[in-house]
Amino acid sequence: MRVILASGSPRRRELLKYIRDDFEIMVADADETVKEGTAPEEAVVELACRKASAVRGLENARDAVIIAADTIVVLDGRIYGKPADKEDCARMLSELSGRVHTVLTGVCIVTPEGKTLSFFDSTQVEFYKLGEKEIACYIATDEPMDKAGGYAIQGQGAMLVKGIVGDFYNVIGLPIAKLKRMADMIGVSL
Predict the structure, then answer these.
(1) Which of 60, 87, 153, 170 could hold 121 in an S-S bridge, CB 3.0 to 4.6 Å?
(2) Angle of helix 86-96 relative to helix 132-140, nearest 10 degrees?
(3) Known catalytic residue at 121
(4) Distance between CA atoms of residues 20 and 22, nearest Å
(5) Which pLDDT belongs to residue 29?
(6) Exposed/middle/buried for 188, CB within 10 Å: 0-12, 13-18, 19+?
(7) Average pLDDT over residues 58-75
């Protein structure tokens, strides 16, 4: 059975390798805007499903299982995606400083027959109180610039994190244990 990961993320690629060695990578353009007022849990699943649908629309992907994911950070009901620039990243990290936020990853699995299963996972992350200098030094590494919420827990961003409750891999971008179990539920062997 062919499996396609509908993501260009090197982090998701590494995580999927924990449960399956052979898969392909395909990325197709998908609209990543979400209607204002959409609940974060709904938004992240909707984005994952759009990515899966975009790849399924490619002619050479229709006979494969497609796995797509999207990750966001949520604080006080506000969605934090990838920072637009260094100033935006500094704002995000300042707002997350000393607080507990939620990391949501939405996942969508589509079978060759078109059967779809989507879900999300949620992890609580607490940051230490961060000073301006610490934030500036972290941003200077460029690590946070393509990460939801402006940090990478699996990199130097780990120094910002006081603790987590939930799946560590969910924070990186793919809740692999839940993915495996959900795939089994619809007869997809990963």
Answers:
(1) 170
(2) 140
(3) no
(4) 6
(5) 87
(6) buried
(7) 94
**Residues in CB range of 128: below 8 A, 6 or more apart:** 97, 98, 160, 161, 162
Quickly tell me which residue has 């795939």 as its tokens: 183
CA gap 176, 168 in Å, rounded: 10
User: Among the residues of 78-157, which ranges form H helices?
Assistant: 86-96, 132-140
The pTM assigned to this predicted structure is: 0.94
How many other β-carbons are positioned within 10 Å of the β-carbon of residue 77?
8
pLDDT in tens, 113-147: 999 999 999 999 999 999 999 999 999 999 999 99
User: Where would I find the beta strands (DSSP E) of 85-175?
Assistant: 100-110, 116-127, 161-165
Question: Phi and psi for 150 in degrees, rounded to 5?
Answer: 80, 30
Q: Which helix (H) or strand (E) segment is 75 a member of? A: strand 65-75
Active-site pick, 70, 85, 146, 167: 70
